[in-house]
Amino acid sequence: MSVTLSRVNASAATLSKNRTVGSVVPASGMCVTCVDGCIGMCEVGKSAYRGHEVIYPQPFGVITTAAEKTYPVDYSHFNIMGTVIGAHGVEADSDKAIFPAVNLEVVIGHDKGIKFRYPWIIPGIGSTNIAKNNWEGLAIGSALAGTGLTIGENVVGMDPEAVIKKGRVVDTVDLKRRVKLYQDHQREGCGAIIVQANIEDTRLGAQEYAVQELGVECVEMKWGQGAKDIGGEVKIKDLQKAQTLHERGYLVMPNPTDPDVIREFQRGAFKEFERHSRVGIVTEEGFAQRVEQLRQAGAKYVFLKTGAYRPSDLARALVFASKYGIDLLTVDGAGGGTGMSPWRMMNEWGVPPVYLHSLLHQYASRLAAKGARLPALAVAGGFAFEDQIFKGLALGAPYVKLVGMARAPIAAAMVGKTIGLAIGSGDMLVYIERFGNSKDEIFVTAGALRKELGNDAFEKLPTGALGLYTYYERLAQGLRQLMAGSRKFGLEHIAREDIAALTREAAAISGIPYITDIDQAEAARILDG
Known about the structure:
about 525 residues, alpha/beta
């Protein structure tokens, strides 16, 4: 049976579409009949007049994007297994084994010094407009919930108000704001704000600045992400800003200091410059040296994030993390992004989540069997709901402690912000006004938060933060219910046998038994008395 996995040549992501919608060639995505005289609505046609601009999802700055490719195996190909007997982590008593009793706290770090109230983290939201414009909601919501939030790459370099002397940052506005928003709303020491760095950030000394001047304890080295295997990109509409970034050492295309390019931009031949980051070249010597530099600078915890690279690079990341005492390794599977990843790359590059996370478990088990110290592991790649979180933790048990999510939390923060704007304008959206016209009426967590924080503090909360906090509250209750159904009342009790594969292929890739193969010995024992 032939199955088409990719959608090509026409997508909402590139604002393109086919003329013959119902008749498309599966291999190329082109219309079955390509007609002379067509204005070029498809991706091929649009590329004929906008060229490289069509490589990237559009409109830039107000969207997050994820691949449309259907992978042969994904997390929906597993089901969660419940049981009617016993309880792990609480007394097997119907009055005590209730889902509100499930403990979702997770502790990580070499000294067990980082505590999250919930087992998830936002793993790297950087210099894109979509991140900057929603940072209030993301930072305050994450801090109130007691979860982790990572400030991604290029924030310092992209800050027009950053003060850079002799190639090193000595002051910032944007990074300082992002860190402070989180720190000012952190409760009882739960959660963590993490500052990530790519090669440009490292050259600028962004992490040293964050640790020594802003009181950041957690820093993260970045090898990559699941959306792309090149450095980060953004688009720049302002000529002066493009020139500033060029001066700071970024690759800006076309060259904003070229007089011919300046004239072309000013006459409107193109409206945006592209700013690209360089790709890092990993060596063990360089990795070890950088870890030591960060610790000497005062970093208390050092993390590593890697993307959907080939299996040997995953093995390399895990071994380096083990050997040099990394506190958290995040492994991001192919398919999604929060910035300007090339659209075809996002769809066609890298190892998809279930495949990559299965390899991660295999490699971690192999190292553990040799007695190696393992870092806490986090998995990322399209997670959005509590069932997916459960499956990610189960597939990687007992090594995976956290699930990374970015697009879904951003969506929650954006919706919360939009509702706040509607409340402020008095023009409530029809879909929302059935719940009310105020924060207290619309956001179901408002009453409890107002009581916890007090009236003054609650009134100052941006609705983007309420949106994220409320979304997290839903995830937490949903995850508790699923765990209670599996009779697992603490995260440390989640195991690989808590999920079953629905296809033979999913079973072969993951090592999780096929659904009718599980419990065979136990079932035989019961049947035979």
